Amino acid sequence: MSFDFLQEKFLENRVGDYLVAFAIAVAGILAIKILQAIVIHRLKNWARKTASNFDDALVRLIEHSLIPILYLGTFYVALQNLTLNPLMSRLISASLLIAATLIAIRLLTSIAEYLLRLYWREKGENNNLQQMSRALLPAIRTAAWALGIIFVLDNLGFNVSAVLAGLGIGGVAIALASQGVLEDLFCYFAILLDRPFEIGDFIIAGDLMGEVEQIGIKTTRLRSASGEEIVVCNKDLTNSRIQNFKRMWRRRVAFKFGVTYQTTQEQLQAIPALVQRIIEDFDKTQFDRAHFSDYGEFSLNFEVVYYVYSSDYNLYMDIQQQINLRLKQELHDRGIHFAHPTQVIYLSSSGNGSSTSQKELVKSVKGQLKAEGQTS
């Protein structure tokens, strides 16, 4: 059997060269198919049995990115056995370069997206994950596509240095013109990454307070306690001290009250234990201390500290109200009175002639004090 036809040339290549290139391509495709059918199929089965999602994402990345790269490599190796004219060679090289760059961009953006989702999933914030993805993923894709286009143009022989220099100068001009907007934009990413507050948190920033309703690229919108919407620049929030009440797992409460100077020693000693018993009767509270703190101008003052294990302000006020009512009732039952502002006037007589006017003055003062007592 004669194989002379294999030596015949067609488009500067022998028929045998075409057959070798075809055989390499077929062998490569078969090898890739076997890899998909055996190795990747087993990897998928193994990933399904594990509780982690990391291996599932890794298998998907291999299947969607590595396999196309292997196909490109197979065709590239097959074409190396052929002698192509310069135009055809350049066209094929450019096509392979563009295809490889597209696959690499998809791979990088997929990895970035998965790492971002994994990070926020560990934090357990699904709503913020969606917002973070909407904000960061387009920026990541834009940057990856820009770098990919520059890489392709540079490898195709285009002079991108002048273009990059022009973009740099234009970028500086745009940055100077939109400095305030860019500051708010970077502050927006700082808020999303650092998370000093999130949607639904009740915060106080400087003289502003309200519930966070929306975190935008330039502004953040708060809903105040009185109902109106407050729009704040992101820069103002990141430059302020922020109090986040939603993350407060317990509230420290300190209050004072005073009893009259007529309270006996035994009654004073019993008051701290009485206050402790009242506070410990409530759920979600922890008594800390109660002390006879100081002598006031008209009262003996006590200071009480306790904790409420909740960030709910209404719950705290309900508990404090019940404590005040119980404390008033308990002190009243024991004959202990809350102090109120009083003033005692001492009069000395200098002679019989002035005794009548002094008595009238005393009666007038007593009548005034009695009237103040009735009105209070």
Could you explain the architecture of this structure?
- This protein is of the alpha+beta class and 376 residues long.
- It has three domains: 4-156, no CATH class; 179-244, SH3 type barrels (Roll), CATH 2.30.30.60; 251-333, Alpha-Beta Plaits.
- Helices cover 60% and strands 15% of the residues.
- The strands form three sheets. Strands 6-5-4-3-7 form a five-stranded antiparallel β-sheet.
- The relative contact order is 0.05.
- The model has no long low-confidence stretch (mean pLDDT 77).
Average pLDDT rating: 77
Note the gap between the termini: 127 Å
Total count of helical runs of at least 4 residues: 10
Beta content: 15-25%
Q: What's the domain count? A: 3
- Helical percentage: 55-70%
- Weakly predicted, low-confidence segments: none
Largest sheet: 5 strands, antiparallel
- Give the tally of β-strands: 10
From the alpha carbons, calculate the radius of gyration and give it in angstroms. 41 Å
What is the global morphology? Answer: elongated
Order of helices and strands: EEHHHHHHEEEEHEEHEEHH
| Sequence of strands across the biggest β-sheet | 6-5-4-3-7
Structural class: alpha+beta
Brief overview:
The protein is of the alpha+beta class.
Topology:
Layout: E1 9-10, E2 13-14, H1 15-49, H2 54-79, H3 86-123, H4 126-155, H5 161-177, H6 179-194, E3 202-205, E4 208-215, E5 219-223, E6 229-233, H7 234-238, E7 242-244, E8 251-259, H8 265-280, E9 285-295, E10 300-308, H9 313-333, H10 355-375
Antiparallel strand pairs: 1-2, 3-4, 3-7, 4-5, 5-6, 8-10, 9-10
